[in-house]
Write a structure and sequence with these properties.
about 425 residues, alpha+beta, four-stranded antiparallel beta sheet, globular
Length: about 425
């Protein structure tokens, strides 16, 4: 029998998946059904109750002041309620809001919700285009606004969604076109990997600061060579532990992704600090999650070079006394980042006269090289790269497939 405390709501216990949890249930006047809060301790449950009630009070205050409520205020309030988002997803939508706030030439951010109409929203999209954003960026921003305004309609703050029928621009109408990716050829990849794993010699001393006998591009170069030989995303690479490597079967078990995300307080506000130069910066922390998509959980062949790189990294970590379970770290034992690897990649490409690629293009060079082999189905590449939808693979390799098709019909010449 549930036990009442202070005459408000009911306490009880419930077995979920073999684990005993406490719960508190209460019928709030603003809900049609009873609200349950679960936890292992009463303290944990009370914290959840307090947060929920505080968020509702804040939301109620916003709705009560809806006549003066601005788009920016509502977007930020709505984002805080999206508890299902991953840290990366939250950061991404916050960037959308900041992008809107920074559109000084057209301040829709501070316009009242009740004043928004279709013409204002169309002008907003036009300004994003004029600002030079890519179609993908514009679409993500406008879709987020549409999502929030749909919620505003449900809450009866506005009668209808003024963004609902506003169309996103076509590719040919935006200044920043979708990039046609560059990929390494098989020979270029061999040159790149050799350069990324180059060891300093006396002849290199005038260009680089590493000691003779050390890797010119440090652990960054080793990580990049591994991406080129495995097709892993940067986040998947940084999440790899030694347990993910099956040396007997020569496979890489890919099931997680790690990245640096903005650290936030209990109210989801970014935590900041002052750096050595006196500049205020947002604190970032390591975040681990499952792969980008369910299809991302996969097995990738462990090539001889990848196996060698893993063994080298284990030896290097011993040298610097790094006990981190992750295979790929920096010399400080911290998480590798896309920006850091991107700078090293650019440096290697420049030195060895190779096409300048991004880490994303380096990963997809792996797929391009496989596609250029005879009798390789694009579905194989799609599975190796962890794409949820084969359409993604077709879009990325569209120009590669055209080259392969043109080459294949030469048999009739």
């Amino acid at each position: 029998m549930a036990k009442r405390k202070n005459g408000e709501g009911s306490w009880g216990t419930k077995i979920i998946n073999g684990v005993k949890y406490k719960y508190f249930k209460k019928q709030y006047e603003w809900l049609d059904s009873i609200k349950y809060f679960y936890g292992k301790t009463e303290k944990e449950i009370n914290q959840k109750r307090k947060k929920y009630e505080e968020e509702y009070s804040a939301k109620k205050k916003i709705i009560e002041n809806s006549s003066t409520l601005t788009l920016g205020e509502y977007l930020r309030s709505s984002l805080k309620e999206m508890t299902h988002l991953t840290p990366n997803g939250y950061d991404g939508y916050e960037h959308c809001i900041n992008r809107i706030e920074n559109l000084k030439e057209y301040d829709i951010y501070n316009k009242q919700l009740t004043q928004l109409n279709k013409e204002i929203c169309k002008k907003f999209v036009q300004v994003l285009v004029k600002h030079g954003y890519a179609r993908k960026t514009i679409t993500k921003t406008t879709n987020f606004v549409k999502l929030c305004l749909n919620q505003a309609v449900e809450e009866q703050i506005i009668a209808d969604n003024p963004m609902a029928s506003v169309k996103n621009p076509k590719e040919e109408n935006v200044a920043s076109k979708t990039t046609v990716h560059n990929f390494f050829s098989k020979q270029q990849m061999e040159t790149f990997c050799k350069g990324a794993m180059h060891i300093e010699s006396p002849n290199d001393r005038h260009n680089y600061s590493q000691k003779i006998g050390e890797y010119t591009y440090g652990y960054n170069g080793l990580a990049l060579a591994f991406i080129g030989q495995s097709g892993l995303r940067v986040g998947e690479l940084t999440a790899l532990t030694i347990d993910c490597i099956d040396f007997d079967k020569n496979i890489i078990n890919v099931y997680a992704s790690e990245s640096m995300v903005i650290s936030r307080d209990k109210n989801d506000n970014p935590i900041t600090y002052i750096d050595d130069k006196g500049i205020s910066r947002k604190k970032k922390v390591r975040s681990r999650k499952t792969t980008k998509t369910e299809a991302g959980i996969r097995y990738v062949p462990l090539t001889p070079l990848c196996k060698k790189i893993v063994q080298i990294m284990q030896q290097e970590k011993e040298k610097i006394g790094c006990n981190d379970k992750h295979i790929f770290v920096t010399t400080l034992g911290t998480l590798q980042t896309k920006d850091r690897l991107g700078r090293t990649l650019k440096s290697i490409c420049k030195r060895y006269d190779l096409p300048e690629l991004t880490p994303h293009e380096l990963r997809h060079s792996y797929g391009s090289i496989i596609l250029h082999q005879e009798h390789v189905d694009i579905q194989v590449v799609s599975k190796l790269l962890g794409h949820a939808d084969i359409t993604t693979t077709y879009n990325i390799y569209a120009h590669v497939l055209k080259e392969i098709m043109a080459e294949s019909v030469k048999i009739f010449e």
